[in-house]
Input
Amino acid sequence: MTFKAKYLVTLIIPFLWAFSTESVEYKVKLAFIEKFTHYIEWPSPRPNSAEFVIGIYGADHFSEYISDYASNTLFNGKPLKIISMKTAVDIDKKMNVIFLGKDKKWAMDSIIQRAKLNSCLTMSEITGAAKKGMMVNFIEIDNSIKFEINNKVMKQSGFKVSSHLLKLAKIVEP
Output
């Protein structure tokens, strides 16, 4: 494991101690998302929001597990706000990240299109989603949560990703 990989893992471990083992998967994903905010630059101009907003479509357990944690956490220096979305139309410019759960795979195309219009970073947990246009996709390899990045889509959408983060990711292209 490289120094940078060890450093990223070291930064994520404190997040895990605050949680029970019941929901470790989503808590690890949330820790990854928080750390990603330090390595990804959003396109300009962004609305000057006082909060870092994650819209979650599907993955209802994700919303449930992190709601308590959200009130005590800063993402990119801002308080975290979680919005449980009912449809893709709920996406707006105030959202920084859209997380698409496995149970809403059928909505992927509309989420991708709406997110592009609103400069939202798209993330999912759906097999093959990064190849289909999601920017970041969480995958499980050998009982560990890893992530894929579609850097081509991110660049086309105006996002800039640190080379440090790209070295840790599995890079995929459509």
